[in-house]
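Q: For a teaching session next week I want to show students how multiple molecules come together into a single three-dimensional assembly. I've collected the sequence lines for a complex. Could you give me the predicted structure tokens for the whole thing so I can convert them for display?
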Amino acid sequence: AQSVTQLGSHVSVSEGALVLLRCNYSSSVPPYLFWYVQYPNQGLQLLLKYTTGATLVKGINGFEAEFKKSETSFHLTKPSAHMSDAAEYFCAVSEMDRDDKIIFGKGTRLHILP
Amino acid sequence: NAGVMQNPRHLVRRRGQEARLRCSPMKGHSHVYWYRQLPEEGLKFMVYLQKENIIDESGMPKERFSAEFPKEGPSILRIQQVVRGDSAAYFCASSGPLAGKDFGPGTRLLVL
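A: Of course. Below is the structure for the complete assembly, covering every listed component.
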């Protein structure tokens, strides 16, 4: 069975500050890992995903995430927050070659302070 | 290339009525997935369909919920005799043979 835990349902950072959204996963098989962003009243947009290979994954809008197998983590970071980054972010996991059934975390709402 | 389309975007029903949610996948995509997002929760998988076939419905409630993806036309998620607990956002996603999932904007169902 797989699961995802996102630490902090709400995170606030100042504009220009580092963004760090935490995600830990549990999986008995090699995972695929994803970060999605959801803007108000919109669907989910894929930010980035890890499948195999390089553990540091770069996504859209300046976000990146690092897969750390020893820590079972896939934290999302961005060096400098922008007001437009305010949204809800979901970490997700699936089995390798089985991205038909993605398991989502409960989400972290990111607030950007002026 | 239009993305995944869902309609209606908002749907209000009274208890006991039926709700029909439609999803048109991206052009060229033949796999459709439905997810439900309850307030303050992440998305939870409901069902995975290909044209005229249900591949995995392990996330569907046993009663009142059904889904189809006919040969022609959109995928339909049908909820019979809705109850207040069915109020949620329902998202559809589609994928093709190579690409990852693309999500639609969702249908927000409110049961009064």
